[in-house]
Amino acid sequence: MTHKSVRDYIRTIVDFPHEGILFRDVTTLFADPRGFRIAIDQLLAPYAGMRFDKVAGLEARGFILGGAVAHQLSTGFVPIRKKGKLPGRTISVSYQLEYGEAVVEVHDDAIQAGEKVLLVDDLLATGGTAEAGIKLIEQLGDQVVGCAFVVDLPDLGGRRRLEAMGMEVHALCAFEGL
After folding, report:
1. Domains along the chain?
2. Which of 34, 81, 118, 149 has its CA 20 to 30 A from that of 54?
3. Measured distance CA(10)–CA(13) in Å, rounded
4. Residue 1 above 70 pLDDT?
């Protein structure tokens, strides 16, 4: 019996959302019970024995992964959302996109000062969204003790960007190219 790797469950869609882009679609991983289980287990493996107070997930696929990881750790989950999507008082961080700027927010009471947080998302590209999420968590007086991703796109430099911030970065697989 041949065992599939996490990478084998991820579909590539050519020219989406723009011509020349190879979109790494993790929804096929999420849809497969075995693949999804393998991914969650492997996201947790590097952190075995570590204590986390919260898991934070980046919108939107980071919510799916982060919720499952938080469940496995028996800890709380904190969504980091696009501006205007959270109902309570928030803090925000803006970051640069290829063409313009984006803003992410978190509730100002979602994480208590001094808590240890694991940041989770599906894909690490340039690292801009993850960096903004880390800054939000740090503004609340907390420590990001790890950043876990299913896919790393190393050609876009996100891992280097986060490691330059002193972050420990873990990805289950990498895809070269755009």
Report:
1. 51-174 (3.40.50.2020)
2. 34
3. 10
4. no
